[in-house]
Amino acid sequence: MNKQKKSGKTLIGVVTVICVALIAFSIIFPEGTDPVSSVVRMAVTPLQRSMNRFGNYLSGLSGNLSSSASLKEENKKLQEKVDILTAENSKLVLDKEELQRLQTLLDLKNEYSDYDSVGANVISKGSGNWYNQFTIDKGSNDGITVDCNVMAGAGLVGIVTKVGPNWATVRSIIDDDSNVSAMVSTTSDTCIIAGNLQLIDQGTLSLVKLMDDNDHVHVGDKVVTSNISEKYLPGILIGYISELNNDANNLTKSGQLTPAVDFRHLQEVLVIRTLKNYVASTDDAEKDKAEREDSVKKAAKAQESEAAAQNQEASDTDLSSADVNAPAEATQDNGAEADAGEDVDVEAAQEAAQAAAQAAAGGQ
Amino acid sequence: MKRKLWLTILCIVTALLQTAWPSFLQIASIRPNLVVILTASFALMCGSRTGLLMGFGTGLLLDIFSGGTPGFYALIYAWIGFLMGYAYRIFYDDDIKTPLLLIAGSDLIYGIYQYIGTFLLRGRIHVFFYLRRIIIPEVIYTVILGVFVYQLNFLINKKTTRKYF
């Protein structure tokens, strides 16, 4: 007994040191422990998948017990909805055709609709109640990489944070650690959508830093991922504004947003394999163009000055060569002066340099 | 040797169940903490050494499965196992109150550790909200589930020990 207690104390010391070292190591080298965890997770993915399937089967059983009366009622409601949506859809198809026609006229490419994506099952949901991260059963074998966007149904679910051959970890947008750069679809005003554990009961996310000087944004407006985001593809639906208030600084607004996805019953998700190509965004393209124009101008100027310099060189060759050497000596002298004197200002230094240069030229 | 194998399998199964807990068994979107139940009950039944080793192993698996900082869970579960092991001397077969009390205390420690380690450090200071919404409900659910899971752990421990004392 006594011996066991003693070894227990030694052991807890050893274990504490190991854990602290591991934590420190993973903070210093964020990807240092990935190979080990990748192998272990690769091995348990089939287990997790089958356990999850069993859980879904059980939940399906409990779902089957609901009465047929409620199902009939629901069916009736859904039928009505189908009728409404069918009518709406036929109108939208016409609109879409018109849009395509106009887009071809204007030579615009349809950039939002055709992302390359792959479906995946949610097989594990983090370790406790504090985080909203989950694991899916597809990985780099299916072309998924870190920073791939994840969707379910109509809306954005989250982003891939870690990836292995047959698994990937996704941080959902309702996670307390998540921030998404977004914009209001009607006005293109940008804002940040931040997950907040304190809002989980309302089923909302917090919306902050909305720049809306003209008060055009209203409750109920659609919020999509912004085109200035580094990682999220533009135009993916996040949700609808459910509350909006002025901030204390009177410059920005904040509020709440109801997500478009039902995060409680997430089983299948869609991973978009197309990554946001941040460098090729339109802003940067414009910048590139401006830079190119600048460089052309500079080249022209350089040619001009070169021509002028050649003319001058022809007139006084000796002096220009002296000028080139002089400044180096001048700065050295100057440095010595600065060390000796207490506060030599820049102008004085320049004067001294010029004097030294003249002296050097005179000497030659 | 055989006992060690069984306990290892138990650790793996518990970590897997913890990460794959089905959503229809969540109450108010709260999951119970099975790893706390496992660690606290084995610490009570077998002492500090077994408790801290099982806590460390299961915590490390949990770290890997959930993709978090490795060592974060391992550290707290090892300490829970070690501290609860001091109750080994007051362990009786037919007593259910002590294990439940230990499980409740352990889960409370775990909740506070998790809050400080991952939320307070990011400036989320509403401690009472998190206590009321996450930590206390988790303790209650864990204790209720602990009534059954402790019995199961007790049986597994009894069957795998050669000499029944």
How would you describe this structure to a colleague?
The complex is a heterodimer of chains A (364) and B (165). Chain A has 6 helices and 12 strands. Chain A has 364 residues and is α+β, with helices and mostly antiparallel strands. A 6-stranded antiparallel β-barrel of chain A has the order 1-2-5-4-3-12. A 6-stranded antiparallel beta barrel of chain A has the order 6-7-8-11-10-9. In chain A, helix 5 packs across helix 6. Chain B is mainly alpha-helical and 165 residues long. Chain B has a single domain, classed as Arp2/3 complex 21 kDa subunit ARPC3 (Orthogonal Bundle), CATH 1.10.1760. Chain B is built from 6 helices and no strands. The longest helix of chain B is centred in the C-terminal third of the chain and has 34 residues. The model of chain B has no long low-confidence stretch (mean pLDDT 89). Classes of the chains: A alpha+beta (364), B mainly alpha (165). At the A-B interface, helix 1 and helix 2 of A face helix 1, helix 3, helix 4, helix 5 and helix 6 of B.
Mean pLDDT of chain A: 77
Total number of beta strands of chain B:
0
Q: Quote the CATH topology of chain B.
A: Arp2/3 complex 21 kDa subunit ARPC3
DSSP strand tally of chain A: 12
- Structural class of chain B comes to mainly alpha
The CATH class of chain B turns out to be Mainly Alpha
Percent helix range of chain B: over 70%
Shape of chain A: globular
Distance from N terminus to C terminus of chain A (CA atoms, Å) equals 96 Å
Distance, first to last CA of chain B: 19 Å
Number of domains of chain B: 1
Oligomer: heterodimer
Main β sheet profile of chain B = none
